[in-house]
């Protein structure tokens, strides 16, 4: 089993979201369920997050709870297989041809554009 210091050195992803209703910022660690905190400024929120992460890890170690390893981009190949209706396939092929790019590039563009809308 890893020590607290070993876990603290791992690159856990931190998500910072501005809270327009209450003010300040909310910070969480997606790989550490329930590890969430906030702060009035970005700096205080990040400092509070580091304290919350340490407290979360300490409690998990004391209680014998399995601590997940951080998610990594190396876990993803950047490829997946997708089945779609033939009519959509034709439409995507036609649109990409009009744009002068490959269908793969066109689909990546559409996915990135849509993902940016929902990431806000």
TrEMBL record:
<dbReference type="InterPro" id="IPR013321">
    <property type="entry name" value="Arc_rbn_hlx_hlx"/>
</dbReference>
<dbReference type="InterPro" id="IPR010985">
    <property type="entry name" value="Ribbon_hlx_hlx"/>
</dbReference>
<dbReference type="GO" id="GO:0006355">
    <property type="term" value="P:regulation of DNA-templated transcription"/>
</dbReference>
<dbReference type="Pfam" id="PF15919">
    <property type="entry name" value="HicB_lk_antitox"/>
</dbReference>
<dbReference type="InterPro" id="IPR051404">
    <property type="entry name" value="TA_system_antitoxin"/>
</dbReference>
<protein>
    <submittedName>
        <fullName>Toxin-antitoxin system HicB family antitoxin</fullName>
    </submittedName>
</protein>
<dbReference type="InterPro" id="IPR035069">
    <property type="entry name" value="TTHA1013/TTHA0281-like"/>
</dbReference>
<feature type="domain" description="HicB-like antitoxin of toxin-antitoxin system">
    <location>
        <begin position="16"/>
        <end position="77"/>
    </location>
</feature>
<dbReference type="InterPro" id="IPR031807">
    <property type="entry name" value="HicB-like"/>
</dbReference>
């Amino acid at each position: 089993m890893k020590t607290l210091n070993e876990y603290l050195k791992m690159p856990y992803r931190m998500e910072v979201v501005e809270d327009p209703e209450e003010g300040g910022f909310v910070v969480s660690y997606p790989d550490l369920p329930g590890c969430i905190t906030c702060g009035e400024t970005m700096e205080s929120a990040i400092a509070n997050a580091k304290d919350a992460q340490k407290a979360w890890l300490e409690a998990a170690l004391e209680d014998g709870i399995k601590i997940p390893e951080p998610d990594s981009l190396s876990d993803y190949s950047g490829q997946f297989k997708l089945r779609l209706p033939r009519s959509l396939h034709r439409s995507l092929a036609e649109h990409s041809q009009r744009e002068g790019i490959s269908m793969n590039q066109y689909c990546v563009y559409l996915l990135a554009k849509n993902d940016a809308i929902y990431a806000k």
